[in-house]
Amino acid sequence: MRLRDAGSVPGATVAAQTKDALDRLVANGWTLPTIETAALTTAFDLWRSLAATYASAYLRTTANAMPGTFHFGAVAADGARGAVDAATRAAWWADASGIPPGAGVLLLGGVDGSADPSAAGLEALRALWSGSDTAAQTLRSAVALTSAKLPRTDLPIIIAHGERDGLLPIGFSSTPYVGALEEAGRRPVYWRVPHAQHFDAFLALPGFGDRHVALMPYGYAALDAMFAHLTKSAPFPPSHRFATAARGNRALEATNLALTS
Predict the structure, then answer these.
(1) Looking at the domain assignment, is residue 29 inside a domain?
(2) Mapping DSSP to helix (H, G, I), strand (E, B) and coil, where does residue 116 land?
(3) Each residue's pLDDT tens digit, 77-111
(4) What dihedral do alpha carbons 27, 29, 33, 38 form, nearest 10°?
(5) How big, in percent rounded to 5, are the helix, strand and coil portions of the chain?
(6) Nearest residue to 203 via CA among 159, 167, 246
(7) Are strands 71-74 and 105-108 parallel, antiparallel or unpaired?
(8) In a 3-state reduction of DSSP, which class is residue 62?
(9) Structural domain span for residue 169
(10) Is 224 among the domain residues?
(11) What are the backbone angles phi and psi of residue 190, rounded to the nearest 5°?
(12) Residues 6+ away with beta carbon under 8 Å from 51
């Protein structure tokens, strides 16, 4: 409703607005498989958590003074907010990724009492990229400092990426990076993995693992190939798009990964 009223998704019906939003995503580089996977990221509310925590990191704010009124809050095992026990606090170092929710920590704030309660916080985060105030300028300057420079000419590089990554789609990350490397005369090895996405931990979810393969085996294979190349002068592997296959409702087999030694 808020996007419609702002003119961001024109259309007289929800169906028309939905189609317009989907068309815009595809026109800007998203593919339908990555959008499908990203829907799970949306269901887990990871977009807000990632945007708020990354913005806070770039602005170097504390967990209690994040942009957009976001802040961390502790939650006990019974769901009550407030102080947590020593075991939960210890888990922050062992089990927490730094992105809430998890290990007894929730992301709070960034909402209002409107019909679209999360929009206010998201708009505040968006303004940090599109705005011109001091906070926006500080954030963009911090992001610019993370820009990667060209690696040295003799540095061996293997890049493995899942084609269904809905958090960091290959069209916005590895593919243009590999293109830039090749334009500059580098020769990276690029492994594209169909049916692989960003979160191997999600493969345990009912129905989700049926349609995807794990990405981690390709990471291990890349490390093995790199080690053999550096220590035994083994030939560097070629770029490759693996012929993966979804396992369906059966147990995962080596043939699903199409990963040969």
Answers:
(1) no
(2) coil
(3) 677 777 777 887 787 888 777 888 888 888 999 98
(4) -100
(5) 45, 10, 45
(6) 246
(7) antiparallel
(8) coil
(9) 158-257
(10) yes
(11) -120, 110
(12) 122, 125
